[in-house]
Amino acid sequence: MALAASCRGRVGLCPLLLLPVLLLFLPALAAGPAGMLQPRDTPSRERRELGGLWSFRADLSPRRDAGFAQRWYRQPLRQTGPVIDMPVPASFNDITQDPSLENYIGWVWYEKEVLLPPRWLQGDPAPRVVLRFGSAHYYSIVWVNGVQVVEHEGGHLPFEADISSVVQGSPGALCRITVALNNTLSPHTLPPGTIQYMADKSKYPKNYFVQDIKFDFFNYAGIHRPVVLYTTPAAYIDDITVTTTSSDSVAMVQYQVSVVGSTANSLSLSLRDQEGKVVAAGDGPVGELKVLNPNLWWPYLMHENPGYLYSLEVKMKAQVGRVLLEDVYTLPVGIRTVHVTSTQFLINGRPFYFHGVNKHEDADIRGKGLDWPLIVKDFNLLRWLGANSFRTSHYPYAEEIMDLCDAYGIVVIDESPGVGIRLPESFGNKSLQHHLAVMEELVRRDKNRPSVVMWSVANEPASELPAAAHYFKTVIAHTKALDPSRPVTFVTDVNYALDHGAPYVDVICVNSYFSWYHDPGHLEVIPLQLTAQFENWYKTYQKPIIQSEYGADSVPGLHSDPPMMFTEEYQQAMLREYHSVLDKKRKEYVIGELIWNFADFMTSQGTTRVLGNRKGIFTRQRQPKAAAFVLRDRYWKIANESSCLPPVITSHSLFL
């Protein structure tokens, strides 16, 4: 559910408004690479993670521009003034006791000094050295040894730079990485935001401003995902694209491989099963592999062996000068198909019902920073719950999370950061072009993942505005052109008769909060209103429907009988009312239900939020509320109804 919120800024000019001026003085950058393969250790590649403590400094100057005016990137950050230790990956907001940093808006600076192995800098030709960020929120400019190497807009997708020419001439193999990061949002960013100046000097300090946002989660900032240095040969495999088709006894794996640095002398591919046996082989940059009696990739609870992954090993040999170089890359591949009818969502030709959750990358202290114990705990809870799917609300999640979805058979609706698109100016051409670029980055990153069965381009936009028709027609068509193999949707909370974007989606995803935001406290209205919602949408569009959000806030330990809002009993009662309608409609054209939310999460402060949004069925610390057991019983019941597994499966027999 998207609600308006704001973050307070200290005195000073809006930091993002300085961006156009600052960028006038930055050198032009070359276009990014076509590929964005996830860094992996292979016989020809090495990787080194740079997690740990980085030096950190917030720019507290009145205009937030001291770092650029004084060129902090040209020297160690500690020489520019006071620095503190900052963990990476993590959000910076909740790490210290400084309230001004918790709500800081503007430029912050990170720095890490590392020594590179001498073998990375030697050879003729020497290896290619690449610096990669899993994500940093929101606008990043990166220098290595004082030389700018990359800039990137967007807080949830990876970016990288070839830094070979910079580090190969550095004395002692020193690599000083400096990052300037700005978390300010504008009407044209994704997600959007606005800066509002408070001009009444009797109430606010001079130049006081707030960052207004139209989404209901905290605008955490920082280097949120791993920073990695990795190497490839000078000629290397740049990108791999895989699609699959299958029948009962045969599967075809179509592939396309791109190479950079030289024309490949040879390119060979081997597809291995989980025992290491080669089941198909091919050569050349474009082709297909024939797999007999394939092990299909099945969702969790649809098969006794969900998430089956093959390994596609790609080997390239290329002549560079007098040297024959070899590059090897291994890509996990799941063989599965997706098809949508007017009433069903089919995976491998079988009806699939989404019984899952919406989530957030959110936790105490670390904010949105990647955290392995938390990730593993969440997947254990998902499987305990009997959930087979989730939506990456409301931005792309970390690659490490997506890896586990592939491996465990958890189905994903992969959503862009297009949340809070509410203002008319956010539907203009500037916003549209950025949205198209973000979808290109998202598809490029996740196109080969079997767990990703559908793209979502936005959540709860103002799709009742006339401009939304062209906007979403264009974004959806562009996404389909990038990836014709998957359906595309966006998530709406607009009345069926007013939505200008719905004609272009493949699946209708609807958010509704009857008896919460509408008719609060009146559980008795849910059956009538929810039934009308489904029937009106289906009569209008004849497309399958997912209840993509529903839920109620509950404070753990707060009880009332009869149920009252914010108690655990009310959350349970609301779920049961929704489920009674869903049970009728899932026999017709409703293909899924995703609870809002998996766990409580932080939001901006407001009169409707007590330490964040409390709609989780788990607390922020991942302890179950009463509603978790209601949902668990339901999801295991649905799984037993639709599973090809023996009916002895129970909520107690797997993944306790």
Automatic annotation (TrEMBL):
Keywords: Glycoprotein, Glycosidase, Hydrolase, Lysosome, Signal. Its main location: other. It catalyses: a beta-D-glucuronoside + H2O = D-glucuronate + an alcohol. Coiled coil: none annotated. This is Beta-glucuronidase. Residues 49-233 form the Glycosyl hydrolases family 2 sugar binding domain. One of its GO terms (biological process) is carbohydrate metabolic process. It comes from Illadopsis cleaveri (blackcap illadopsis). Residues 338-639 form the Glycoside hydrolase family 2 catalytic domain. Its EC number is 3.2.1.31. Belongs to the glycosyl hydrolase 2 family. Homotetramer.
